[in-house]
Amino acid sequence: MVNELQSASSLYLQQHANQPVHWQEWNAEVLERAAAEGMWLLVSIGYSTCHWCHVMAHEVFDDPEVADRLNERWVSIKVDREERPDLDHAYMAASLAMTGQGGWPLNAICLPDGRPVWIATYLPKNRFLGALEELDRVRRTHGLQALDYAEQVAAALHAPARTIPDWDGSALQPALRQSWDLHWGGFRGAPKFPLPSSWSALRLLGRRTAWPEALAQVERTVETVVRSGTYDLGRGGVFRYSTDGAWVVPHFEKMLYDSALFASLCAELGSAESLVALEETLTFLERDLLRDDRLFAAGLDADHPEGEGRSYTWTESELQEALGPDAPQWLDLLERESRRHEGAWVLAAGPAGNPNPRELPGFPSLRAAALTRPLPVRDPKCVLSWNALAVSAFADAVLRTGSAGRRSLLRELAEAHRRAFADGQFHVHYPDGRTRGPAFLDAMAYSIKMALRCGQVLLDPDWLNQALVWLEAVRSRFERGNRLHFAPRGLPDGAFADTLNWDDDVLPNVLHCLAESAMVLGTLRSAPQWVEWSKNLIQQGLERAASEPARHVSWFALDCLAQAEPEYWLLRPGLVLGARSLPSSPLWGPMERETNVYAQLCTQNACRFVALTETEFNRGPNPFC
């Protein structure tokens, strides 16, 4: 065998194409050959913008001694997690079950059928070689025990989740409150992720249950992040996470999904500071990640020739050159509120309540200097699940701001997504037209939610119809044995396990997205089968949420929709709503056909309020408040 990555589409795989390791791509042929030869696998998973993936690549996989050992005794498979999220999900779940930890690069030693017997993240050369030596001894002398262990791991991943069917919810608020960091915002502990989906869900829960503490915690979190090192004050957008509990020093890669979800949260919040961050973040997405074909690239690398994050950090001389006479005030701020990372300052201004750094003298000059810096390496692939989140962010911004220019751009972005997605045939699209497919459940769920959001914001019933088509495809392609799966049926080289989580994480929970979308579409289009399907998912989600409330906020926020006879708004197709607050309930959208009525408030059995004009709608119990 030789290194087979030279012709790979993935930038991450290309980064490993010239290494002495005989890397293979994951496919059925490679697995069959390993099984025929009785060879165990090294499955190494990462992505192109990952700092520690680069570190291990240079320290370990570029090394001839490591390559000789791997090439002699193992079949080495390199996986881009963005091309194969099914494999990433399965091995990450195994890593958490086996070690209690996860991250990238993720390296698994596996039986020829892909079931893991050992997993680790980053390891330096000597530890990695030591692990290989020990695992080779296990393979030769304890093969049956390894087989038993692999079977136990696979069984554990498919074990039923813990549920609490009769939990009454009385302890929900105290359970959530004790997980909050009341000074810096976010959740307690470090590393600290922005987690926009969790805070969006908490805000909806706070609005629906009249819980002011929840609303205050969301505002505290957003307004601390937007002046912190975890937010890019120079170019806009957020970094992946903070390495500390005060949001000061981030992990510097910038992923499309993080900034898209953060933009949506800023649009929901609607405060003066969050609207500034919304505009900055959308500008970053348009300027730095939007491709010519109106699809978004996956992300920007953390690394720089001078060290991790140097695209975003500032030496004292760089600050003095950019700020001139205003440099001392900035240096004083950074001495108090920030830290140096590898010898250069991270731009961070402390918690909410501190002066807004955008209002300090010299900030326009500092931003102008930041925009002259060359971008880090951009991964050009479009991950269509993340792309749907970005389009949804622009939809949320259009509703919040009423921007006519962004409304026109939203239509372009949505149509580009629909063309590339091709009804779920693809989940990755490259600038040269190459694709990977079929779509996994995350791309289906986020695309359905995107179509629903576009239908609402543009008041275009065609997008609701599209969402229903894709929702039908979910049941036909992903529902097996009375439950949903992450991978579609018939995938020839699927993962050893197909699991779906119910908890909130960096990305929105896929099952929650489907439950909410099915409830909204079933309600607006009088399709009771989708309402019942949604209620079943919500009930299962709530039973699991009770065991760990802080990780399942989205299910509590969705609970009220499952109540009998919810009210919903229908508005005349084609209306332009203008700037509005985002509603606390997702139960609204366009009527199916043209009418002289401006809007009507309905239940499944009747309409109880009709507005003939916009004035009547604004004076009535309209949802945009």
In short:
With 625 residues, the chain is α+β, with helices and mostly antiparallel strands.
Please describe the topology of this protein.
Elements: H1 11-14, H2 28-37, E1 41-46, H3 51-61, H4 64-73, E2 75-80, H5 85-99, E3 106-110, E4 116-120, H6 125-141, H7 143-157, H8 172-177, H9 196-208, H10 212-225, E5 241-242, E6 250-251, E7 254-255, H11 256-269, H12 272-289, E8 299-300, H13 316-323, H14 327-337, E9 340-341, E10 344-345, H15 363-372, E11 378-379, E12 382-383, H16 384-401, H17 404-421, E13 428-429, E14 435-436, H18 441-457, H19 461-478, E15 479-480, E16 483-484, H20 510-524, H21 528-545, H22 553-558, E17 568-571, E18 588-590, E19 599-602, E20 607-611, H23 614-619
Parallel strand pairs: 1-2, 17-18
Antiparallel strand pairs: 1-3, 3-4, 5-6, 7-8, 8-11, 9-10, 12-13, 13-14, 15-16, 17-19, 19-20
Helix pairs in contact: 4-6, 5-7, 9-10, 9-11, 11-12, 11-16, 13-14, 16-17, 16-18, 17-18, 18-19, 18-20, 19-20, 20-21
Fold and architecture overview:
Helix content is 47%, strand content 10%. It is of the alpha+beta class and 625 residues long. The longest helix has 18 residues. It folds into four domains: 147 residues, Glutaredoxin; 296 residues, Glycosyltransferase, CATH 1.50.10.10; 58 residues, no CATH class; 52 residues, no CATH class. The strands form seven sheets. A four-stranded mixed β-sheet has the order 2-1-3-4, sandwiched between helices. Strand 5 and strand 6 form a beta hairpin. Helix 18 packs antiparallel against helix 19. The protein contains 23 helices and 20 strands.
